[in-house]
Specification:
The chain is built from three helices and 18 strands. With 284 residues, it is mainly β.
Length: 284
């Protein structure tokens, strides 16, 4: 991040030279963002649990789904055309990304000895919650811009995404811990899990890249209207599951959790997204 910030300051420091060496323009833009993140995960709730004179099994039907939804993107760019159509562009973008979740259902079955009838029930634990802060990449690009009132631009370069805080919380079924009075009811243990970045990743930024194309229409001597499409690509962030409930677990619940944990694959959050924006640019 220090390298990009230093390069951005270097562009700003060269502004006084722009009169004799090229031109400078400042752009502000806004528009919708389209994240590409989508992930589903499922797990085996464990081996059948033996309760005296019966066998209990828990099966997950369907899978947990996480789908990203885009919000509004804002940004600003400072560009220096130092050699005709060739220039440098320093920019900062920020976009709001929401992640919708949908939960899985569980089918719990108990095989009771004759003459008792077997028991079964469905368990729906609902949806989870994903807490994700705004994505704020900083970029330094090479830019090509055609001259004239009607022009096109293309720029690409390196982007840096500061440490991103993301937490996913989901309630899961562990298994049956007991049968109710007169074998009429199944008591199913549930537990809320939280997926977070590991300590060695939680405070690390990520390097990536960006690529964009746009069009410009001049509406005055210095003012112009711009439209742009841009994509950002970054490294994935791994989130590991751990219990989120503060309550102490019973020995049986702890045993069930020990069976489940090895089958819970980590989440891999991918902060890649696209945006389509319009804005105003001022040239100097």
């Amino acid at each position: 991040m220090k390298k990009i910030a230093g390069a951005a300051w270097a562009v700003a420091a060269l502004l006084p030279l722009s009169v004799s060496a090229g031109s400078v323009d400042v752009t502000a833009h806004v528009g919708p963002a389209f994240p590409t993140y989508r992930q589903s995960f499922s797990y085996d709730p464990g081996i059948p649990v033996a309760i005296p004179s019966s066998i209990v099994t828990v099966r997950q039907t369907g899978s947990f789904q996480l789908d990203a939804e885009g919000g509004i993107a804002f940004g600003a760019a400072l560009a220096w055309q130092f050699a005709g159509p060739l220039g440098l562009e320093a920019r900062i973008d920020t976009t709001d990304v929401d992640v919708r979740t949908s939960g899985a259902r569980y089918r719990v079955e108990v095989d009771l000895p004759a003459p008792l009838s077997d028991l079964s029930t469905d368990l729906d634990l609902g949806t989870g919650v994903v807490d994700l802060e705004r994505v704020r990449p900083i970029s330094l690009n090479l830019r090509l811009r055609s001259p004239g009132r009607f022009g096109v631009t293309a720029s690409a370069g390196v982007s840096y995404l500061p440490a991103l805080r993301v937490t996913a919380t989901q309630r899961i079924g562990l298994g049956v811990t007991s049968l109710g009075v007169l074998l009429e009811r199944l008591n199913v243990a549930t537990l809320t899990l939280r997926a977070e970045a590991q300590p060695d990743e939680a405070h690390e930024g990520r390097w990536g890249g960006n690529l964009g194309v746009g069009a410009r229409v001049g509406i005055g001597k210095r003012l112009g209207l711009v439209a742009e499409a841009r994509g950002f690509l970054f490294q994935k962030q791994t989130l590991r599951w751990q219990p989120a409930d503060d309550r102490p677990l019973t020995p049986l619940e702890q045993a069930l959790l020990s069976e489940v944990e090895p089958r819970l694959a980590p989440l891999e959050f991918n902060p890649t997204f696209f945006q389509a924006t319009i804005g105003l640019t001022v040239g100097f």
